[in-house]
Design a protein that fits this description.
145 residues; mainly alpha; 6 helices; 0% strand; elongated
């Protein structure tokens, strides 16, 4: 029968102890390399990432943002407008729609829906929607249904 590392019989205790210490050392080196990788800042921002949008809306990311207590459907829709990554003609044109145009005949983006579309425009634009006040939530509810 084969034992540790494919040897038959039993190995002397000092060999097993050295092998165990070597495994611990390798694990510590891997953990240290991972830690250094996490702690060191990236030299360049990945070119595939898009620049942050609407970062001015969030003053302190550690606190709950306005609208956190909304229903999940409305909270998700609110965050889609905040990040400009929602279901609109410009984002879905390859999958579900033949055109990226809004019913008002302009390119449909998330910011267009809130700020400039004559059919769906919210008075106060995205800043008001971010505040999640009563009028903004009613607009969001009517838009999402």
């Amino acid at each position: 029968m084969l034992g540790l590392m494919g040897f038959s019989g039993s190995l002397p205790l000092y060999v097993i102890h050295r092998y165990y210490n070597l495994c611990l050392l390798i694990g510590q080196i891997k953990m240290l390399a991972c830690l250094l990788d996490i702690l060191s800042p990236p030299l360049l921002r990945l070119t595939s990432r898009k620049p942050l949008v609407n970062s001015h809306l969030m003053c302190d990311p550690t606190i709950r943002q306005p609208g956190f207590d909304l229903l999940r459907q409305h909270w998700s829709l609110l965050n889609r407008f905040r990040t400009e990554q929602g279901h609109c003609g410009a984002c879905r044109r390859k999958q579900l729609t033949d055109t990226d145009l809004c019913p008002c005949r302009e390119t449909q983006t998330m910011s267009h829906i809130v700020e400039s579309c004559p059919l769906t425009k919210l008075n106060g634009s995205l800043s008001r929607l971010h505040s999640a006040d009563e009028d903004a939530v009613s607009w969001l509810t009517s838009y999402g249904s």
